[in-house]
User: Fold this.
Amino acid sequence: MTDNPNDKPSTKRPWVFIQGQQAFQFDAQQHDSLLEAMEAHKVPVHFECRSGYCGACRTTTLDGDVNYQHQPIAFIRKGEILPCCCQPTTDITLVQD
Amino acid sequence: MKYTTFSREQNDALKEPMFFGNPVNVSRYDQQKYPIFEQLIEKQLSFFWRPEEVDVSKDRIDYQSLPAHEQHIFISNLKYQTLLDSIQGRSPNVALLPLVSIPELETWIETWAFSETIHSRSYTHIIRNIVKDPSEIFDDIVLNEEILKRAEDISGYYDELIDATRQYQEFGEGEHTLPSGETITVSLRALKRKLYMCVMSVNVLEAIRFYVSFACSFAFAERELMEGNAKIIRLIARDEALHLTSTQHMINIMASGEDDPEMAEIAIECHQDAIEVFRFAAEQEKAWASYLFKDGSMIGLNEAILSQYVEYITNVRMQAIGLPKIFETSENPIPWINTWLASDSVQVAPQEVEVSSYLVGQIDNSVDVDDLSDFSL
Assistant:
């Protein structure tokens, strides 16, 4: 395994970029969800239900893929994710408003 | 045009729009045009709870020890919540059911309104416990000027839609002269517009107004006061999150045009009106905050903080449905509220009177042979 952020596809600990800045590596061993990891790395993020049905943590992505542990019920558009109930499967770039 | 409780039209429900197609005939859920409404129904059913499960007896002692201005905050907030759920327990059924055309949405609306009636019943449960004569509280809801101001705004959109639907069903499209001599113009497009704005106003109610009231309920519980009430409000908040999600889905489906192209045009036409509905409600909620704290603040919450929360939550909810945010605020001034709104932070001890994370009727039916591989005889 490598820490090189350019090494995209099969990284087991995908990099999370925020506003183009390399922020942290997601480690599924430590965090159940992207939201938990964002909080642990002090990335500001809204949340309410933490279970995929309120939509408060809705975040826009520029690239990257995520896997949902449970299919979320909250409304999400193409390119948006709900960090509370997903894990990144590739390097991912988040946009903050 | 006339509503029928069982349409004989041999239609394909998968081709019907959400609203203004053929009335729903067979309630079938084996196929869905929008599976999200079926998922919402299942989630709502799994959330089922009864007010009596929550022990609120300690709240009576807490309430009596509150200073007068805090009693005013608590009771006024409860009256407002009672008003909101009184409206929501009936209005989605009365206003939306005659217009709906797909079974999963029809059943979602009924399930939604039913859950609001549970909320109404829980306010009676709370009020009965803290005061000798509940009538003093309930009777004031239709007298209190501050509450009536919001009631008028909230029920106004529903009432206009209901009246316009009645005219459409009775007369059909076109110009009509009523026996009174008054001339009215009925058009389906105008009716669709009323529906769109009504759903928008309901979204504001579910997504902003309720949350302002939750903030007050949880502010007491943060000080370990009125905790029975907070347990109930936490269950209500969990339901409301689903309701606001459902109205967001409806609005977004309408605006996408995939369902009814005319609705997408209406969504564009109503863009500014929608923003104004949010702005007006936010200002009204801030005025409410000023009324709540007129005789003094409470620890952890005052008029300025609650107003800032109104602005924060308004921005979040507007962006959710693709509207621009209208306030500068981007920070949640009361981050502790999220702990109360999070469904997975509910620590459940066996001795607790209610178990809010317990999912009734959630059974895993997909058992694979491999799941049993560890067993040996």
About this structure: Strands of chain B lie at 174-177, 183-186. Residues 188-222 of chain B form the longest helix (35 residues). The interface with chain A takes residues 36, 39-40, 43, 238, 241-242, 244-245, 248-249, 252, 316, 319-320, 332, 338, 341-345 of chain B (CB under 8 Å). Residues 61 and 304 of chain B are 29 Å apart (CA to CA).
